[in-house]
Amino acid sequence: MTELKNIRNFSIVAHIDHGKSTLADRLIQLTGTVAERDMKAQMLDSMDIERERGITIKANSVRIEYPARDGETYILNLIDTPGHVDFGYEVSRSMRAVEGSLLVVDATQGVEAQTLANVYQAIDADHEIVPVLNKIDLPAAEVDQVKAQIEDVIGIDASQAIEISAKTGIGIPDVLEAIVHRLPAPKGDSAAPLKAMLVDSWYDAYLGVVVLIRVMDGVIRKGDRIKMMKTGAVYGVDKLAVLKPQMVDIKELGPGEIGIFTGSIKQVRDTRVGDTITHEKKPTANALPGFKPAQPVVFCGLFPVDAAEFEDLRDAIEKLALNDASFSYEMETSAALGFGFRCGFLGLLHLEVIRDRLEREYDIDLITTAPSVIYKIHMRDGSEIELHNPADMPDLTHVDHIEEPRIKATILVPDEFLGDVLKLCQDRRGIQLDLTYAGSRAMVVYDLPLNEVVFDFYDRLKSVTKGYASFDYQLIGYREDVLVKMSILVNEEPVDALSMMVHRDRAEARGRMMCEKLKDLIPRHMFKIPIQAAIGGRVIARETIAAMRKDVTAKCYGGDVTRKKKLLEKQKKGKKKMREFGKVAIPQEAFINALKMDS
Known about the structure:
Blueprint: E1 7-14, H1 20-30, H2 48-53, E2 60-67, E3 73-80, H3 88-96, E4 100-106, H4 113-124, E5 128-134, H5 143-154, E6 162-163, H6 172-182, E7 195-204, E8 208-217, E9 220-221, E10 225-228, E11 234-236, E12 239-244, E13 246-249, E14 252-253, E15 258-262, E16 276-279, E17 298-304, H7 310-323, E18 328-334, E19 338-345, H8 348-361, E20 366-368, E21 372-373, E22 375-379, E23 384-387, E24 399-414, H9 418-427, E25 431-438, E26 441-449, H10 450-464, E27 470-481, E28 483-490, E29 493-494, E30 500-503, H11 504-521, E31 529-535, E32 538-545, H12 561-581, H13 588-595
Parallel strand pairs: 1-3, 1-4, 4-5, 5-6
Antiparallel strand pairs: 2-3, 7-8, 7-16, 8-15, 9-14, 10-11, 10-16, 12-13, 12-15, 17-19, 17-20, 17-21, 18-19, 22-23, 22-24, 24-26, 24-27, 25-26, 28-29, 28-30, 28-31, 31-32
Helix pairs in contact: 1-6, 11-13
């Protein structure tokens, strides 16, 4: 068991792409935690999709041994966290397991929206924060300006900020010394009853559920009987290990240490993140406060393209939900698409990641319906229902009013793009709350409706600001507005996968846009296909896909015109009949592209 004064637990927080995972690589490499031949870039990003997109999705931990300049050997437990808004819950729970944070800021980009969001989480968790300026080897680096910006915007003293380049390795030894000397050691009492926090859990095909814990008080040993305080379940500790990315078995874990155990737990559902683990015979008196469970924000339907793959999809979704506590799902059926699942996500990136993993790891072709948010519908009789899917909208004669979720969005943007950003937010029915300056960059705070942001707000924001804006949001509550359900009819049949909730003022424009898009996306058939957008019984927009023509008069040459007329009449009757019985095949790409809203 390591002495408390020689342990340091810390996480690395930063905006997307400011170099968290690369810094973690250098710390692992410099201390020789992983042999040179086993090193690879983004060592802690284990999923294929993380490596391919270059983003961190799961917070991962590693234990590093560091012989410091003062002659002592320290144990450093590092948790590398994601930078995207959608995975903010991973950041918040990692924060509770450690005492300090390295705040990485890109010396060429400065403070971004996510930097702020993540730092505030660290400050809430009462962390000691060490600012680190990364990418100082780049010609565009502006070290002094960025230090001033950290002090202005975040209010942390940056005079002692460490200047590094995680790619080339400049300044990494100083980071290790700062972790040892500037971050506090953990507190805890090894004689007290066991009290450990469940930080994360995942499923391993050989070991069952693997649980990552941070010990606060007491000691956990191999063979102990332990109890989860929330669920009341009791397990035996079969294996106790620390992660040096690979598992290394140990006999015991003491206060302040972070490690993993397995205890033949069958389902990740049985392990609640934030739960307190204690001994069965000698439990601790009071549990740790735990976390709020992650609330899904965006909902969409996932359906297999081939209805026969429904059972495979169910297995795949159950397996994914094992590792992702924030992903919720329930069965649903649709007239157009058959059986599928209504799934809840933390944001659009989360939705994309889950969809990619289902298609890639389980080889299932999916149709994704329009993402929607939860609306609160207040009925005339005083009851209130939550609407997850626009297709389930009750009859409007019984509805009193509809409320939609609103968010508080913080956008940091260079001065020259400010006008475009304000216009974009106004177009999306935003209400401006605040506008301040940090150096040459404006910080705009807007109150926006979530359903306007969910579609493609982020893409539009990036394109109007040439990629310079950064964006972060949090939910602030519900507000009443004039919302209507818009249905799309193809060949006079409603396509429930394309129905959506829109603001009444926007309905016509959005309906027209949707019809124009579908006209280009649906292939031509042998008969005319009308595409209509309707609110209730009123059609607000229409496009028609022209029929393909077969030249039935080709065999006629010369002779009487009535022969040609007879053939054309016959063709006309056939087309009319086809249109009554003809099924319009809407290809999968049409669904996905129709749901990507442009300007």
